[in-house]
Amino acid sequence: MKKNTIKIVLFLFAPVLLFAQEWNGFVEFGLSPKFTENKQILSPLGQPGNGQYYALGEQRLQLKFEHSSDKGELFFKVDFVNDNVLENSVLNIREAYFTTTPAEWMDVKIGRQIQTWGVGDLMFINDVFSKDWISFFSGRQDEYLKAPSDAVRLSLFPEIPLFEAIDISLMPYSHSDINLMTEGRFASVNPSMLQLIENRWLMPTQATSKEWKNVEVAARFQMQTIKGFTTSLYAYKGRWNNPTAMSFDPQAFTFSPYFSELQVYGASSRGAALGGILSLESGYYYSEEDKYGDNPLVPNSSLRYLALYERSLTTTLDLGVQYYGEQIQDFAMVEDNYKLLLAGNMQLMDGEALKDEMRHLVTLRLTKKMMNETLWLTWFSYFSPSDQDYFFRPRLSYEYSDQIRFVVTANILGAYGDNDDDKNLKDNIFPDYHNTMFGQFKDDSNINFTARYIF
Amino acid sequence: MKLIKSLTLVAFVLSFIGSAVAQDAEALMKEAHLNYNYAKDDGKAKVEMTLVSTKGSTKTKKFSMVRKDLKDGGDQLYFIYFKSPSDIKRMTFLVKKNVDSDDDRMLYVPAIDLVKKIAASDKASSFVGSDFSYEDVSGRLWTEDNHELLGEEKVGEYAAFKIKSTPKQSDYFDYKISLISKKDKLPLREEYYDSQNNLMRVFTAEKIEVVQDVPTITIRKMENIDKQQHTIIKFVSIKYDIGIQEKYFSERYLKKPHISLK
Q1: Residues 112 to 141 of B: which have CB under 8 A from any A CB?
Q2: Do A374 and B129 touch (CB under 8 A)?
């Protein structure tokens, strides 16, 4: 085991040692005590886990390396993390790619990379690339919300009228969101899931096999800017990023979560308007395995859209407001299924019956820059009147020197109204209780303290 | 002898014409603006920007800056490639200065592969946390102010014209006193005043060097009187007329900067 670790480290550092150029990166200490104990979180031995008290407790060393030649560029970024909550030490290769320009009209980026597109502010529709929400909820730097993917990315710049660029990302194996919940950092209080677990009906999540048929493709067609507005079209064929579908074995009466097939088609446009920047985006999520919405174990298709308006209010104060909407398709089918279930004519419940047909969400961002932009006060919040939940994320970040940074972030997750009614949990078999993106983590609210030395 | 006499006469006439033109305050400010902001057709420099606070603590940012003029005195393109501190290293920033409308600003954050359009309605906002504003970096168009020649004054060894500029429409300063060197027609000092005649900010050209026959202010200082702090921008490795292509000022090269932009 030890020998292997040394080998891996040597292997990883070989290129760095060979080129021996400038090293950059940072050393960081992060701690996120929770506001309240979350008794749901147990260690593998059934003891209270560290995650009951801390959302995060880690030391991180990041190393960055780059090498350029006239033909291309190599970039490498690795994080060494000692995690006191999960009690392990890991090495994460965040980026390891090279880029080159084989033809005047084409750029290629090969390797592990962070990919982003779309125009939302911390809301994603056509950006189907992996996310790490738990990282975000526990107070790590924003960049860790984006998880890397292994891909071959082609960017084409054809001399076709109207077209600016065509990006095609080929991901040889299926990617998903990083879900650290099961590892004992956060716990979702989802009673129907708890019931499944207690009855031993729930089997481990089936990983998507690394077969050719599971290659994922994402594409963007960026149009030329017209009247200050840049419009893009998107397409994706792959799988949902979360194991929201289940396969059911009637003999053993077990459920196995898996990542079902998904196609996404969408468009976005962004430009200067109303004294600021206006961004619009929409996407149709086509759930291939539930074409008509009648399969209770697979998520329905949905239509998603957002509008974002950003502007500066003063020279040091910026504002961003965003609306996001999500409409479940074939919702009548979901309701019919639910009626059948209540009448005893159906055995399985449609997970979507716990949701509303429409999900509305608004975000607000205020950024105040003080002391020559060394002190940043940021307010960012998600608020959903339909889910009746919220995530408030006030942050203070201070550049003490060119090398030293301090950051304090509160991560306040919660639910209100019916969604926060403890009575629901006791009275109903299938309550809405905490079955929403932010509300489910209300016992995991925390405050993060981070100190970083960059070099 | 006769030839020398006539040459002297020509020179005298020429210099007379020269000073007559220079005394036109607006023409002088235009010339200074073009010399300062539109030298040759394009230019590239390595920049070191240091903010010195009241207590003497310093914050330094290093970046490369490339400029291309689309039209002399008109629209311009700027490309900035950040080098240090290392948490902003590889970040890039593209500004299209539009004379007739708000600038277009685009930022690329490589750590999350994010291209961000930035609202640019306020030209007085700080340029990357320094005492310089966006407008200070790309230059205030001479046509935005009315100019009046107040006289002549010496700034160190340089003889200079003293000009008062008053914004045609109300702005973040009430008036500005500029000292434009007679020799190079470059701003040596600019004082910004508010409506109570309080000095708000002072720009000084700390060092002028001749680069490819172009007199260039290589060390620029902006002092904020209220905050008792200042920022110094040093330009090194300056090159003019590098023949940079317009296509490099696009999203493609923002994400993957061409070697000539770094």
Answers
A1: 112-114, 117-122, 124-126, 128-131
A2: yes
Enter the ipTM: 0.90
Proportion of chain B above pLDDT 70, given as a percent: 91
Tell me which DSSP letter residue A284 carries.
Answer: E
Q: Contact A448/A139 with Cβ under 8 angstroms?
A: yes
Residue B147 burial (CB count, 10 A): 20
Average pLDDT on A260-286 reads 96
- Confidence at residue B71, expressed as pLDDT on a 0 to 100 scale: 93
User: Which sequence spans correspond to the domains of chain B?
Assistant: 25-261
* Segments in B78-196 forming alpha helices (H): 134-138
User: What is the DSSP-derived secondary structure letter of residue A203?
Assistant: P
Is the Cβ pair A454, B130 closer than 8 Å?
Answer: no
By C-alpha distance, the chain B residue nearest A146 is: B112
pLDDT tens for residues A347-385? 777 778 778 899 999 999 999 999 999 999 999 999 999
**Which tens digit of pLDDT belongs to each residue from B65-117?**
999 999 999 999 999 999 999 999 999 999 999 988 888 899 999 999 999 99
**Euclidean distance between CA atoms B38 and B105, whole angstroms:** 19
User: What end-to-end distance do the CA atoms of chain B give, in Å?
Assistant: 57
- The tokens describing A238, both together, are 């792959």
Contact at 8 Å (CB) between B235 and B218? yes
Read off the pLDDT of each residue in B226-240 and give the average, rounded to a whole number. 96
Would you call A447 exposed, middle or buried from its count of C-beta atoms within 10 A (0-12, 13-18, 19+)?
middle
* Segment A64-115, tens digit of pLDDT: 999 988 889 999 999 999 999 988 999 999 999 999 999 999 999 999 999 9
- Measured CA to CA in angstroms, residue A110 lies from A8, A13, A150, A224, A326 at distances of 21, 19, 8, 26, 34
- In this complex, the residue of A312, A373, A402 whose CB is nearest that of residue B122 is A312
Stronger pLDDT, A16 or B204, i.e. the higher one: B204
> Does any CB of chain A come closer than 8 Å to the CB of residue B182?
no
**Which pLDDT does position A425 carry in this prediction?**
57
From chain A, the residues in CB contact with B89 under 8 A are 24, 64
Residue A190 falls in which region: left (phi positive, over 0), alpha (psi -120 to 50) or beta: beta
Cα–Cα distance for residue pair A302/A75, rounded to 1 Å: 37
Domain B25-261 superfamily per CATH: Lipoprotein localisation LolA/LolB/LppX (2.50.20.10)
A312 vs B51, B104, B119: nearest CB: B119
The answer to whether A147 touches A178, Cβ cutoff 8 Å, is yes
Domains of chain A: 2-454 (2.40.160.10)
Give the separation between CA B133 and CA B123, rounded to whole angstroms.
Answer: 7
Q: Look at A372 and B119 and tell me if their CB atoms are within 8 Å.
A: no
